[in-house]
Amino acid sequence: MNQGLASPLAAILILSLAACSQPAPPADNAPAVAGEPLATRAVMIGTEGPSLPACSSISRVKGGGTDVYWAPGETRAVKAKLAGGARVSLCEAADNDAWFGIVFAAPGTDPDMCGVGKSVQNVREYQGPCRWGWIKGGTVQLGG
Questions:
Q1: Which of 27, 59, 123, 144 has its CA 20 to 30 A from that of 89?
Q2: Facing residues of 80 across strands?
Q3: Nearest to residue 120, comparing CAs of 42, 44, 49, 57?
Q4: How many whole angstroms separate alpha carbon 79 and alpha carbon 71?
Q5: Rg of the Cα trace of the chain?
Q6: Model pTM?
């Protein structure tokens, strides 16, 4: 390859990859990735209808904490870790309550900013501003 062409191509590749990246999570909530996820599935909000909050319940993670995954049934890659007592909003259930789709605020961030306590007109994917993911059933204290 021509040396004069290699540097500009490398710079373009690096800039295009940087444009696709998301901001790094805080150090105390950093993902512990064991490999690329095999599947991802966004958490849906508004599943209870337009007259109820977008997510049905505020709950607390049970003692010992829990891992947050990219999709229900996906245990290859951990998206984030939540400490025991962390507040999460339960938005969706899958596989007969074996998995819960949750929305959670970053540590030190006001959970009310997640916006899931308000109703939404139609079922849709949660797209922020808070984090989302899937946890195994039995890892939260409902209504905590």
A1: 27
A2: 68
A3: 49
A4: 10
A5: 18
A6: 0.72
